[in-house]
Amino acid sequence: MLVLAAKAEVLHPGEGVFRSERVALPEPSVVRLSYYVKVPYQARVALNRRAVFARDGHRCQYCGASAENIDHVIPKSRGGRHAWDNVVAACRPCNSRKRDRLLEESGMKLRRTPAIPRERAWVLVASGSVRPDWEQYLGAAASLSA
Ligand SMILES: [Zn+2]
Fold first, then answer.
1. Tens digit of pLDDT for each residue in 115-140?
2. Around ion ligand 1, which residues have CB less than 5 A away?
3. CA of 87 to the centre of ligand 1 (A)
4. Which of 25, 84, 95, 106 could form a disulfide with 90 if both were Cys (CB 3.0 to 4.6 A apart)?
């Protein structure tokens, strides 16, 4: 366990207690890694529909309407990859308007360049929600609107 190995410190005690035969430790709600643990690139954030919607705030990245679809910026039929930097949340009208065209061909513009999500989306995806006692550790990005 990371805390016992002194590689992480407890920043915020949780509700439960970890017990072993000899020690009882407060169950941490938030831990800070004392050194950088290299996480394999692929394991960092799984690319799936829920994660993309979380990253994009459930908003169409073309028009800002409520998103229902996942759009490949460079269509798969045109060699686009299924990767964080090529998928965006999109509303149905924008998704069907763009079809299998490139941005230049469709004349459509992205509101921002898609990228691997930062902590907030990651925490949401990993846990399903952000607990109130986590927010102070997540910074401004954690103020939840979705
Ligand atoms: Zn749209």
1. 887 655 555 556 566 667 776 666 54
2. 60, 62-63, 65, 91, 94
3. 14
4. 95
Largest Cα span, the chain = 67
Query: Cα separation of 23 and 114, whole Å?
Result: 46
Q: How far is the CA of 85 from the centre of ligand 1 (A)?
A: 18
| 66 neighbors 40 (Cβ within 8 angstroms) | no
> How is residue 36 annotated by DSSP?
P
Contact indicator for 92, 141 with CB cutoff of 8 Å: no
What are 70-116's pLDDT values in tens digits? 999 999 999 999 999 999 999 999 999 999 999 999 999 999 999 88
pTM for the whole thing? 0.56
